Amino acid sequence: MAGSVEHMAVAVELLREDQRQQGSFLKLKDPVHFVLGNLAPDGIMSRKGYVRSMKMHTHFRDGIPDWEFTREDHQKVFHQRIHSFCAQMLLEPALDRDLYLGYVTHILTDEIFMKTIRQEFMEKIAAIGLTDRDAETFEYFTYDVNQIDFRLGREYPGIKCAKDCLRCEDPCSILEMVEPERKADPDAAKQELEKVANLNVVKPNPEKVADLDAAKPAERAAMIISEELADSREWVRNFFFDRAPAPQKPVYYTYDRAVEFIGEAAAFIKSLFTDLPAEE
């Protein structure tokens, strides 16, 4: 998946387009929350006892491993989850639309990253006999992405404004959605509550919530709580900006390709965000 500063750079490009269109593109009330939303899905990594399955959940990837991400049936489920999340979260007046729009932007950025950069990286790493099942592969991958993020944090146009957003202290959290494949199940609420319990998140009272699909936002589970998002923002600010080392040369994924990817991702998302509904 894309690096933290890569995500911020995509947000910068979309905000730049929004400025060109005098705010009519993203229709934001608070651009800072849009930037924070672009980091939110990875905020789960701040959770005590974090395991990778938690990150797969916040990225709508339950049951969809990296090496099967592009499989047709998995793509169908993945896109159903995105559409359901948008319908439930972006159109709910009680929720922070800007934060959730940033969240969706992160998910879409990772989608195109998986379909382009990850595949290119795996083709290159295969030359030394490694595959996407080898732990060493991801050591190389993490090294390259981090070096690129360190450099983006120093050089990418507009990134300083995005970095300043990380100092925002507003309480922000991300609520669970009802997954589309579970809506027709009469035991949907029970299954959702069990899933929440297994992931150790803040959960609603099952006596109060008979039907999660009809529940008010305040009664739904918090998928990522505000403290986790705040801790994640602080980590990104320290690791990639305030205490970042001098970037070294990446091996398999280049800085120039990353800059090219940021433009590709922004263009891809722009095409999907045409005629976004504004917050009421």
How are the elements arranged and paired?
Blueprint: H1 4-20, H2 31-37, H3 52-58, H4 72-89, H5 97-115, H6 117-125, H7 135-155, H8 159-165, E1 174-175, H9 188-198, E2 222-224, H10 226-242, H11 255-272
Antiparallel strand pairs: 1-2
Helix pairs in contact: 1-7, 1-8, 1-11, 2-5, 4-5, 5-11
What's the Cα radius of gyration? 19 Å
Shape: globular
Strand order of the largest sheet: 1-2
Low-confidence stretches: 182-186, 188-216
Mean pLDDT: 86
The CA-CA distance between the termini, in Å, is 33 Å
Helix content: 40-55%
What does the largest sheet look like?
2 strands, antiparallel
Order of helices and strands: HHHHHHHHEHEHH
Query: How many strands appear in the DSSP assignment?
Result: 2
Please identify the structural class as seen in this structure: mainly alpha
Give the amount of beta strand, in percent. under 5%
Q: Give the count of helical stretches.
A: 11
Write up this protein.
This protein has helices at 4-20, 31-37, 52-58, 72-89, 97-115, 117-125, 135-155, 159-165, 188-198, 226-242, 255-272, and strands at residues 174-175, 222-224. A two-stranded antiparallel sheet has the order 1-2. The model is unreliable at 182-186 and 188-216 (pLDDT under 50). It is mainly α and 280 residues long.
